[in-house]
Amino acid sequence: MVKVNRKALATKLRLRLSKKTVVSALVRLLREEWKRSTDLATNIIYIFFCFSSFSSFHAVILHFKIGTLCMTIIQHELKKHQLWLDELNKKKQAAAADKNNTRFKEDYEKSVKKYEGLVRKQEQLLRVAYYLLLNLAEDLSVELKMRNKGIVKMLVGTLDRSNFELLILVVSFLKKLSIFIENKKEMVDQNIVEKLTKLIPCDHEDLLNITIRLLLNLSFDPDIRSKVIKFGLLPKLVNLLPNENHTQLVLCILYHISMDDKAKSMFTFTDCVPIAMKMLLESPEQPDLELLALCINIAANKRTAQIICEGPGLKMLMKRAFKFKDPFLMKMIRNLSQHQGPTKTLFIDYISDLCSHALHCENEDFSLECLGILGNLTIPDLDYELILKEYDLVPWIKSKLQPGAADDDVVLEVVILVGTVCSDDACARLLAESNIIHLLIELLNAKQEDDEVVCQIVYVFYQMIFHKATREIIIKETQAPAYLIDLMHDKNAEIRSVCDNTLDMIAEFDEEWAKKIQLEKFRWHNSQWLEMVESRPADDDYGDYAGYPDEGPMYDPYLQDADILDRPDLFYEDYNNSIMMDGHLTPEYIDDAGMYGDYHNPYGYDLDDPYIRPEGHLGFVQDGHQVDPYGRALDPYGPEYGEYLNGGGDPLGADNPYYRDYGHR
Questions:
Q1: Which CATH superfamily is domain 396-525 in?
Q2: Which parts of this chain are annotated as the region Disordered (predicted)?
C-alpha cells in the first residue's frame, strides 16, 4: 500500500512539475522575496524539498538552480544570526555594566525573547534548505559543486545551534561528506572536533548515535585522533561503553585511538581498563573483535599492562585463554608479557602450560602466541636449562629451524626463543653443542631477505658471544663472523646496530678477526673515494721509472691481500711519482726526485720563491721590526731598511752580528 501511494504521489507531482509556468513562478518568487519573508522562503523551499525526495525530479530542480539559491539563503542566514548574537552581547554587557539601570535589563530581556523567536523561524528555514541539499547530494558531481561553494563551512557553523532536529540533519550531512579526505581536512580547519564535544554526550539518543558515527568516520585521520585526546573526548567516549546502543561504535573509535603509541598511555586516566576487562571476561565464548583489538593495543602500554594484571586479572585472562583456545586473547596476554618489571615475573607460574600448548596445541595460531610469550620471558633468575630439558625443547627447536620445516612466523618465534634462553650460560653451551649455530647460519642463508628473521639470528650470535664456550665455537668453528661482516652494512638500521655490537665483541677477543673487521669498516667508510682512486688508468711507464726498466709497478693499484691501512698511495695524490724509502711512514716530505730535505727547489736552483719561508740567518720577526707589504721583516742594518732579511737583495755580510752568531742555514 505504501509503494502504491508513493507511486501515485510521484505521478501527481510529475503532473504538477510538468507545468513549467508554475515552477518558474515559484522560483521567481523565491528569488525576489526570500530576504523579505522568512516564512515565505521556508514554504517555497519546502515545496521543492518534496520534489527532491524523488530522484527523477532532481534534474528539474538543478535546471532552475534551486540548490545554488538555497546555499545563498543559508549563507545569508548564518551571517544574520551572527549579527543578532553580536547585538545581543552588546546589550548584555550594557546591562551588566549598569545593574542599577532597569531600562538596560528590560531591553536585554526583550531582545532575548525576540532573538529566540527569530531563531526558531530561521532554524525551520535552515532545516528544510539543508534537507533539500542533502537529497540533491545523492549525485557526487552535485555534492562536489556544493563543497566548492562552501557547504562544509556552513554545516560546521550550524553545529552551534541547540535544535535537535536541525542538528541531526546537519550531522547526517557531515557524516555523508566525511568519507572524502578533502572534506575531512576542511572539517578539521573549521574545528569540528571542538564543536562535537558539546554533543557528546547529549540527552537525545538519535543525535548522539549519529554524532558518534560521524566521529568514527573522522577517527581514521591521525590528526583528528590527536584532537579527540586534546579536547577531552576520550573519557566521554569511555563512559558511553556501557550503553548498548553505542557500545560497538565507541569500541571502534577507541580502537582507532589506541593505534597511536602516544595515546595508549591516556587510557590509564580513564575507566577504560576495568570496563573493557569486565566486558571481556563476561562476554560469551567469542568476544567482539573490536573489543579484543582494543585490549590488544592498550596492553602494549606498560602502565596499562600493570593495571590489567593487578589482582586476579592475569589469572582470569589465562584461565579464559586456555579454556577457549582464543588466539586473540593470547595475543593480548603476549603484549602484557613484553614489559620489564614485576609484570613479567607473574608469568613464571604459567610456563608449564605455555610450553605444553606451544608444543602440542592443534590450534596453530594459539600455539604461536604461547611460543611468543615464552620468548618474551627474559627473567634473570629463571632456570632456562631446566625448562629445555624438562620439555625436551632442544630437538623440537632443531626440527623447526630446518629450512622449510615450518612457517615463517613459527621460525621467527623459535629464533626469538633461542635468543632468550641463550642469556643463560648453560643453555647457550647446550644449544651450541647441539649444532644450533650451524642451523642458524643455514637459516640465515635461506631467509636473508626476511629482515626480522635475520635480525633475531644476529641477536642470538650476540648473546652467545658473551659466553666463553659458545664464543670459541662461533669464532673458531663457524663462519658466523664472516656473515656478520657482510651484514654490517645492511639497509636495515636494526640489523646494522646488532651486527656492529656483535662484531665489536668478536674483535675484542680475536685479533685476526679484529683486523678483518677494521679493514672492512675502512673500506666501507671510504668506499666512494677508494673506488675513484683505484679506477685511475694504470701508468705504462712504471718500468722505465728511476732507471729500473725491468721492474713493473711497485705498488699494486688494487687492494688484493694487502692491508689497506698500509697503502699510502691511496692517501696522497702524487704518490706514484715518488720513491718510498725505508724508515719513513709518510711520503709528504718526499720530493719528485725521491729525495728528502730541502734539496729540491720548485722554483729552480737559481730562482727564489718570493713566498718561501725565510732561509736567512733570521728566521723570525722580532718585536719592533719593520715589515714589507707581504709581512717579511726588513734588514735593520740595511740602508733605510731597504734590504730584506732573506729573499730579495744581497745576502748579509759576514760582519753582521746575526751572521756571526747564527750563520746561514
A1: Leucine-rich Repeat Variant (1.25.10.10)
A2: 644-665
